[in-house]
Each structure stands twice: as structure tokens, then as C-alpha cells.
Amino acid sequence: MTPSQLKRKLDDELSALLAASEEHDCGRLEFVLADRGDLVEAVTTLQELGITHLITITGVDAGDEIEVLYHFLRYGEYDDGDLGEGVELTIRAIVPKADPTIETLTDVLPGATLYERELMDMLGVEVTGHPNPEKLLLADDFDGGPPLRAENLEVN
């Protein structure tokens, strides 16, 4: 399935959940959720379509909100069964700084646990329902704000 075909399929399957979608020139797909509360449903739909490889979770401080990006890889396959060209896709969830919470993916993707802990440490997003919300990267006695929030970055 080409990136364009996959985008059309996901646009159809996720239509009720999306604010926007885009296919970039390199074939990477990006989907923006209309509501962060739809994250688990969107990822469950990806899994049903065979997209189960979560590459990483990243975040960007975007002023009054934090954009949380879930990066996935769908492996391609040639007719002979060998792996072909894959498709990278990103699910973007918008989290307001006034209420920096998002639901955990660990119930549907256990491998998300470390990425979510990093998100909590570095951007201060509370991942609700996480099975082990202990600090991952920051010392237990760290008393500063989330280091990757714009208001906490020191510019030289």
C-alpha cells in the first residue's frame, strides 16, 4: 500500500477523530486529532490496520499548548513476502498547557511506557493511567520546571 493509499484509508477510518491530515513530499503521513481524548481510539484503529510499531513519542512546546507526536512505522511488503518500503506516520495530539494531561497508550501499546515517562519528565504532560509514572530522566529531587518547556529554557 502506497503512502497515498494508506492516507485515504486512514482518512476514512479516522474521519470522525481528525482535525487535519497531510501527506508530506517524502511520503510521511501526519494526522492531527480533533480531541486529545480520541488518542487511544485512533491508535487502536492503527493497530487493526497492522500499524503496531511505535517508533517514539516526541513533544513540542507551542506556546499555550504542547503538541504531542506519536511516530509510527508501517512496514511495507513485496509480493514475495520480503519487506518493502515502509510508511512513517505521525498522530499529533494537542494538549493545552492549562490542562497538560493525556491518556496513556500502555494498555494498547505496552512499549509506550518509557516514551510516556520521558514526556512527563521533559514537558510536564501528565499521562493519566500510566502504570509507572515515576521519573525516568530527571533526579527525584529535581525541583525545576519541565526542562523542555519554553518558559524553562535558558537562552545564552
Please describe what this structure looks like:
By secondary structure, this protein is an alpha/beta fold. The protein has a single domain, classed as 2-Layer Sandwich (Beta Polymerase, domain 2). It is built from three helices and seven strands; from the N terminus they run H-E-E-H-E-E-E-E-H-E. Strands 1-2-5-4-3 form a five-stranded mixed β-sheet. A two-stranded parallel sheet has the order 6-7. The protein is globular. The N and C termini lie far apart (47 Å). The model has no long low-confidence stretch (mean pLDDT 92). It holds the Pfam family Complex1_30kDa. It comes from Halorhabdus tiamatea SARL4B. Residues 34-150 form the NADH:ubiquinone oxidoreductase 30kDa subunit domain. GO terms for molecular function: NADH dehydrogenase (ubiquinone) activity; oxidoreductase activity. Keywords: Oxidoreductase, Ubiquinone.
Q: Outline the low-pLDDT stretches.
A: none
The ordered H/E elements are: HEEHEEEEHE
The radius of gyration computed from the alpha-carbon positions, rounded to a whole number of angstroms, is: 17 Å
Q: Into how many domains do the coordinates divide?
A: 1
